[in-house]
Amino acid sequence: MGERFVSPAGWTPPGAQFSSKATISRTVGATLVGLVVTPVAIALAALGAADTKRWVILGNLADRWGSALQILVGATLFLVVAAMAAYSPASTMIAGLVWGVIPGLIYLIFPDDSFRTIGELPLLSDEMHIALYEWLATGFPLIVGMVLIGAGVAATFRRR
Asked: Where exactly are the transmembrane stretches of this chain (predicted)?
């Protein structure tokens, strides 16, 4: 009776596949990635969208491929952030809240202050200031933020 029962090789207790010891570090890491990738996606998509105005004005002389590529890369980065919800739903929801919903709601409440704040952002060109303000004025941050939060909520419900 002195010997303990030895589990068969490869055996795990029921429900062990649902437990994770690295949940906090995974969430923190994915959140940091989401908080860095999302503003890059916003910058690329906003610049690309602002450059599309030139298509109408300049016609074939405009850099269509450059702005189209910026929009596609920005959209792909948004897709990466949304897909991270499968890895850590909280990270996608936090990125959507910080870079989408909060700026969108602030713009709706304080549009003049938002324009002034964007104009005061350091290290950005005048073209980027205008592109960010146009992006904000169209409501896209609020839309993208809600979509990212929705992706996180859907991933959370899918896990249960």
From this structure: 28-48, 68-87, 94-110, 130-157
In a domain, 87, yes or no: yes
Confidence of residue 20 (pLDDT cuts 50, 70, 90): low
Q: Which residue has the tokens 């200031």?
A: 129
50-70 burial code (b ≥16 CB/10 A, e <16): bbeeeeeeeeeebeeeebeeb
Look at residue 37 and tell me whether its pLDDT is greater than 80: yes
pLDDT in the model for residue 21: 61
- Over residues 110-129, the mean pLDDT reads 90
Asked, for residue 14, whether it belongs to a domain, the answer is: no
Number of domains in the chain: 1
Q: Supply the range of the domain harboring residue 122.
A: 25-159
Residues 121/83, Cβ–Cβ less than 8 Å: no
Answer whether residue 12 is part of any domain: no
Contact 142/105 with Cβ under 8 angstroms? yes
Q: Whole-model pTM?
A: 0.78
